[in-house]
Amino acid sequence: MASSTAPLSAKASSDGSASLKQTSNTFLENAHAALQDAGKAERRDLMALFTPIVRDAAMKNFGHFEALREHVKQVKQHSLEHLGHYLNQFEQAALHNGNHVHFAEDGEQLNSIVLDICQQHSARRIAKGKSMVTEETGLNDFLKRAGLKVMETDLGEYIIQQAGETPSHIVGPALHKSAAEVRELFFAKHDLGERELAETGDMVSEARRVLREHFLKAEVGIIGANALVAENGYTMLVTNEGNGDLCANLPNVLVICTTIDRVVPRLEDATAMLRLLVRSATGQPQTCYTSFYSGPRREHDIDGPLETHIVLLDNRRTEILASDYREMLQCIRCGACLNHCPIYAGVGGHAYGWVYPGPMGSILTPLLTSLEQSNALPNACTSCGRCAEVCPADIPLPDLLRDLRHDETKQKLSSSRWRLGMRLHGWLARHPALYHAVTGLAISTLHLLGARKGSFARLPLAAGWTSQRDFPAPQGRTFMQQYAARQRQEKDSEHKAAQNPGKDTTASRATSARAKAGRGAARRGAAERIEPSLRVDWPRKPDPRRPGGVRPAAEDSGKKPGAHPGGPRGKKPRRRRDHD
Amino acid sequence: MTTPPTDQPSPPQALRVSLFVTCLADLFRPSVAFASIKLLEQAGCEVTVPLSQTCCGQPAYNTGDYESSVPLAQQLIKQYEGADYVVAPSGSCAGMICHHYPRMLEGEWRERALRLAAKTFELTTFLNDIAHIERGERAPVELPGVTYHDSCAGLRELGIKSQPRALLEKLCDTQVSELQQTEVCCGFGGTFCAKMPEISGKMVEDKLSSALATKAQILAGGDLGCLLNIAGRAKRNGANIEVRHIAELLSGELDSPPIGQGKQ
What we know:
- The complex is a heterodimer.
- Chain A is an alpha/beta fold.
- Chain A has three domains: 8-321, Rossmann fold; 336-416, no CATH class; 431-500, no CATH class.
- Chain A is built from 26 helices and twelve strands.
- Chain A has helices spanning 8-13, 27-36, 38-62, 65-81, 83-96, 107-120, 132-137, 139-145, 155-163, 179-189, 200-217, 243-249, 267-282, 317-321, 336-340, 342-347, 358-368, 371-374, 386-390, 397-410, 416-429, 432-450, 463-466, 479-499, 506-519, 526-529, and strands spanning 100-104, 125-128, 149-152, 220-223, 227-229, 234-239, 253-259, 263-264, 289-293, 307-313, 455-456, 471-472.
- Chain A has a six-stranded parallel β-sheet with strand order 1-10-7-4-2-3, sandwiched between helices. In chain A, strands 8-5-6-9 form a four-stranded mixed β-sheet. Chain A has a two-stranded antiparallel ribbon with strand order 11-12.
- The longest helix of chain A is centred in the first third of the chain and has 25 residues, at 38-62.
- Chain A is elongated.
- The two termini of chain A are 21 Å apart.
- Chain B is of the alpha/beta class.
- Chain B has helices spanning 23-28, 30-42, 58-63, 66-80, 91-104, 107-118, 123-130, 152-158, 162-172, 192-195, 197-213, 224-237, 246-251; strands at residues 15-19, 45-48, 85-88, 120-122, 146-149, 218-221, 242-245.
- In chain B, strands 2-1-3-4 form a four-stranded parallel β-sheet, with helices on both faces. A three-stranded parallel β-sheet of chain B has the order 5-6-7.
- In chain B, helix 5 (91-104) packs antiparallel against helix 6 (107-118).
- Chain B is globular, with a radius of gyration of 19 Å.
- The N and C termini of chain B lie far apart (52 Å).
- The chains are: A alpha/beta, B alpha/beta.
- At the A-B interface, helix 2, helix 3, helix 16, helix 19 and helix 20 of A face helix 1, helix 2, strand 2, helix 3 and helix 4 of B.
């Protein structure tokens, strides 16, 4: 990855933009603060319980998750491999439909392009649909500083805009807010006199009333896109509130802000993705509104914008495409990885300190800003794999996170203590005799100190562990010590038996053989040395595929249940490293 | 006594298994390795234990120190590639060999890794699906209520889910009282638990609460990392639950105190 180029957020934050102030490097402190708020933590726990259930039910009803995700992955990979071709095709088709198409290299360019469009139309009021891309570029603040009034119209975005916050989730930006908080917020922000707002529905109605006014007055509408269809130049947008369509159709000018990696070849590719996107995101079979925008109002159309612009942002995506992290560009922004991540559930989206949280955010943030600013994020992962399991684009998120930790190690951004510890452990483990001697000594000592209580409440060099839990004491000497001692003993008794053949009665040999088996100290060939009459023949099921016999190992290759060489889905290694 | 009819199948040849003890069992819980040997022998296997084994390289690998983990992977491949079967009492170590070695190595080493992966199994998978273990001669040890933590690597990399439950039922007449959110991580995550202790503490607290809510007296699992984490938290909280590796339960080797408990 090209972490050497100046990070976007540093450039953007220098002009005082609030939403872009990145705090990923204080992830642990952010997480600590989040965990202290018991009410919010409980809310997150409930969401973490609820959202996977909803998603699982939707996928179960659907029944084609695996097949379709393989398809979607291939579509995305194909589109990315031929990104230039499809972007060109999209651009030509979109121009043909009457759109203006702009390419923005970075966030600043996108912001400037949008401001120029607004100023050309002397626009003062902007109605804005939900768009994570514009969160990435800090568009709202940029336009605000230019004197424009930007109103978020997605209910969640509206709530956090009123509260002066940033999204905590890429699909549900205000999921961290309780109904009571929203009620208080509306009382404070809406000058509408005495009212109760007892039910959630009352609050929704109030927001709708306030927003409706704005929709009608706005001169420019800004929305995002879930997909760009190369074959016809359409952009696709899904919403549950219909606010995107109002933004797109009521103002005279529409600006669609999106990124280059949204392009897919055909309309049916967009709809295939749609079937997984919505189920993965909210557990719905379909969102309430799915819209395709072709371009400005045509002569015989009765409504629609008079002028439409599509702004396609790169912002390092071409760099990612050329890097080992290109699979991250397959992401369709469903948020399933957030909903299934126990760390996201624990600390919430704001702790990640930038635009994208959770597993996808922990990869995107270092790639779109810099690893220096966010190297805690790839470590906020237990490699549990739940995110990859549900990812509708089949992105190997834990592998990418691990690769970022590898970059972190190579660039010496991780703590030198950890790096040294790992190298030392690795070196020791490459010298088995020394390893067994050293661990034998250390473990015996730990056992002596801890055997009575069974664990340590505190232990030098293990403060991280013991701050949260006791450190279980080793059971005794290491297995290797015990096993080697037993083998020596056996050798001795065999040696003695050989010297005194007269005393080697059947009984004593039987005892010795049983003891061997019982102690589990059999070695290759040990079974043959035990007299056949004394061997314990455990009843075993014969292998059904091989009458009367047990499958030899060779037959198992690649067919065994459970373990799959090369990964659960038989993947090829994604990349090679220079470590041989 | 008459001789059996000759068309009876000849007794099956013993499966030859090389045990990968895993470093956590070697250092913290040798009883897990001895129980594994006992179970494998009960299933009719011939067990060998390569004495030069150390660590599969997972700690370094997961921390991002690929340069330290690659030589350990190569060392393990050399130690075990002659075996008929490799069995480890850990889903994450078996997953490391089966899933990650072929990813992290290249060329000839990758081929060797793939060949090793094809014959490497986690213990309960091997006992249940390959060796088809039957009950021993002794009556099964009566177990109080047991709940089970599905360790993430075993569950998602190797598909271990039904095997430990089937074995508990078959060998111990025990039905698992399921944890709520049993497939959610316990917060161990290798070095994660030490790097991000507070978040890890929250996760293991959730896991422990779910375990206690089942009223089971034993929490079993197939990975010592998770079990040390959960047992350590249980001890810290003074929670009344025993934490044990499934190999101990299946083999009936319950003489040693549960993980993290002293000799009383």
